[in-house]
Every structure is written in C-alpha cells, then in structure tokens.
C-alpha cells in the first residue's frame, strides 16, 4: 500500500470532484464538488512538500536537521482563505437564484432565463414600434 499516499488521494478526490462538476445539474452539489476540487489541490500541495525529518521553521533546529520551507504552508493557508471566500460568495449567488427561479437545477434556471429574455425582447419590440412611428411623424 505504498502507492496510497496524499498525492494519490488528492488525485482521486480531484477526479471525483471534477466528475461531479460535469455530471450533476444541481447547483448545491456543484458547489460541494468545487469545494472538493479545491481541497484536493490543497492536499496535493501539502503532500508533495511533506518531509517528516524536517524541523519546524519557527523553532531552533538541532544541527544537521534541515528546516522546512514555510512558503508552501503560507500558500496553502492563503488558498484555504480564498476557497472559503469563493464558496461563501457562490452560496449567496445560489441563494439569490433559488429565490428568483425557485430551483437549484441548472437546466430549469437556464430555461427560465431564456423565457425572461424572450419576454423582454418582445416587450422591447412592441414598445419600440410606436416610438419609431412617432419619430417619423415628427420629421
């Protein structure tokens, strides 16, 4: 079971999340899948830089023991914060869509948006015809 490490698990989680993003139509499930993809990226970054024999960079290290690079850790912490902000903002957008269209299904929302566009276009065409006739009459 030497092949079962953090990198392999991260790749498996990435594949599951990407499959769910493509295959599922529910926006909440897509949001959870996006979180899974982001978490798999974080796990991948942590697992490729993990060395159990390295010392912590904030404590004095004994002689001969290499010190871990703090940059990947800082990048991972930044990625976690950005991931949280993206997921929170996306959840707000999903809540607004559900409030307006009463569905979390991408297909239903798409059809409702197309119907709204068609209604607006028909109203604009009906409203613009008298205006153009009035402009011609004044000239």
Defining traits:
mainly alpha, Helix Hairpins, 4 helices, 0% strand, elongated
Could you please describe the fold and organization of this structure?
This protein is an all-alpha fold. It has one domain (6-104): Helix Hairpins, CATH 1.10.287. It is built from four helices and no strands. The protein has helices spanning 6-23, 27-49, 70-101, 106-138.
Brief rundown of the structure:
With 139 residues, the protein is mainly α. The chain has 4 helices and no strands.
Number of helices: 4
Globular, elongated, flat, extended or rod-shaped: what is the shape? Answer: elongated
| Biggest pleated sheet | none
Level of helix content? over 70%
Q: Mean pLDDT, as a whole number?
A: 87
CATH architecture: Orthogonal Bundle
Number of strands: 0
Unreliable spans: none
Tell me the count of domains: 1
The end-to-end span amounts to: 85 Å
Helix and strand run: HHHH
User: Taking Cα atoms only, what radius of gyration do you get, to the nearest Å?
Assistant: 26 Å
Strand and helix map with partners:
Layout: H1 6-23, H2 27-49, H3 70-101, H4 106-138
Helix pairs in contact: 1-2, 2-3
């Amino acid at each position: 079971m030497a092949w079962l490490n953090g990198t392999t698990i991260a790749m498996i989680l990435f594949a599951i999340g990407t499959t769910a993003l493509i295959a599922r139509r529910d926006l909440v499930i897509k949001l959870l899948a996006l979180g899974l993809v982001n978490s798999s990226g974080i796990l991948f970054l942590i697992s490729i830089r993990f060395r159990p024999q390295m010392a912590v960079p904030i404590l004095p290290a004994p002689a001969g023991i290499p010190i871990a690079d703090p940059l990947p850790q800082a990048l991972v912490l930044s990625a976690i914060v950005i991931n949280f902000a993206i997921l929170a903002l996306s959840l707000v957008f999903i809540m607004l869509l559900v409030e307006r269209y009463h569905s979390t299904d991408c297909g239903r929302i798409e059809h409702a948006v197309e119907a709204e566009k068609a209604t607006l276009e028909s109203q604009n065409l009906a409203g613009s015809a008298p205006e153009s006739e009035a402009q011609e009459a004044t000239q």
